[in-house]
Specification:
Layout (H helix, E strand, L loop, with lengths): L3 E4 L5 E8 L4 E8 L6 E6 L9 H8 L9 H11 L7 H13 L3
Antiparallel strand pairs: 1-2, 2-3, 3-4
Length: 104
């Protein structure tokens, strides 16, 4: 899994973007920070295969943060580095739970 964090365009907003190998998806998380509990404003890439390309994840995130020009290639490289990996027992169980519960 990879994760990159950026300051949001608005004060008190943070943006995280990355690759989740077990779920086979890129993800974007936008949070309002600063309070006792961070409020999640947007969270995409929470179920298997939801966001299939780095470009798609970046499209969601650019509304909320200024991102480096090379982020797409960095994220795709993160994905490529994981191609030969397989799920362990905990990852298989988590995916089974997601599918059975209708979350993905």
């Amino acid at each position: 899994m990879s994760r990159y964090d950026f300051s949001g365009r608005l004060d008190g907003v943070s943006v995280s973007i990355g690759w989740d190998r077990p779920l086979g998806t890129f993800f974007v998380q936008v949070k309002q920070t600063g309070d006792a509990d961070d409020a999640v404003l947007l969270w995409l890439g929470t179920y298997p295969g939801e966001i299939s390309s780095a470009a798609e994840a970046i499209r969601f995130a650019t509304d909320h943060a200024e991102l480096p020009a090379d982020l797409g290639s960095i994220l795709e490289t993160d994905r490529l580095k994981t191609l030969g990996m397989i799920d362990g027992p905990a990852q298989r169980a988590a995916k089974d739970f997601i599918v059975r519960s209708g979350l993905g």
